[in-house]
């Protein structure tokens, strides 16, 4: 390789990523969101790789959106070959803009699936058993008649999963001991795969009508933005719970609020919001039948390390001329290979592409 690769990152989920990459022949440059913008642009404009800052992180700085991998950043970074998101979600990256520019887009789906799936199950148990509601009543001295806190069980209920990816699939496995009927809406899953995982594929309209728990685990894309709105909430059972560990814009927050206040649904477990972190006066946070966490479903000690190792390993693969294991825009590959050769003096292996696709 005639040029030493330069990788810009905002932070790692665990120091293990830095430990792995520091022994590789890769120049690591930290993007300090608190520094003057010109300092960050000086690093990015000569970068070959960018581990994209998360939307939650950039929300804390002025004009933080400039550090997301959108069209403006792509235009300013002519040497950029690849961008990666920290976790499974990749809404911080404009995939189409990157593809047009010959930039590979990757995520890190898989390593954090266990953490998020367990969190989603935790929401189900908390809502059904009214654990948080009971805790609030006990601490406030407003307990009253404890029979008013009567809950329900998961056993035999119907679980509706929107998105049968790594997280949704693991959630199905975790719920197996409860003997739940599991129905799934995912247009990218075929009947054979669904049968192998013990679930039934249905239309979204049927899923929201039948489910006792509607779990959203899909990524945020142009197809899923606003997927769950007034019509879907209106079709749900008044005893049903809505849970999301996906991204806020997948559901309509106003429609959700109306359903919760009007008794259209029983409650909600939310790890994501349209604005993150949500403001303290967010109407959803004022409701007793809502439990919420600040986008922490995937944050566990184990998941942070696993994601960091997967992140570092993927960057090693990229800069040694291999095909990224979690490439989201495979159509970019021919142009990416040409740009990689022009910029770094090494042509990625076509054989590696065939082997990985097979």
Automatic annotation (TrEMBL):
Indicate yes or no for the key word Amino-acid biosynthesis.
yes
**Molecular function terms, GO-annotated:** NAD binding; oxidoreductase activity, acting on the CH-OH group of donors, NAD or NADP as acceptor
Keywords for this entry? Amino-acid biosynthesis, NAD, Oxidoreductase
Biological process terms in GO annotation: amino acid biosynthetic process
Q: Name one Pfam family in it.
A: 2-Hacid_dh_C
**Residue span(s) of domain D-isomer specific 2-hydroxyacid dehydrogenase NAD-binding:** 121-297
Q: Residue limits of the D-isomer specific 2-hydroxyacid dehydrogenase catalytic domain?
A: 73-329
PANTHER family on file: D-ISOMER SPECIFIC 2-HYDROXYACID DEHYDROGENASE FAMILY PROTEIN (AFU_ORTHOLOGUE AFUA_6G10090)
According to its UniProt record, which protein family does this protein belong to?
Belongs to the D-isomer specific 2-hydroxyacid dehydrogenase family.
Could you identify this protein by its name? D-3-phosphoglycerate dehydrogenase
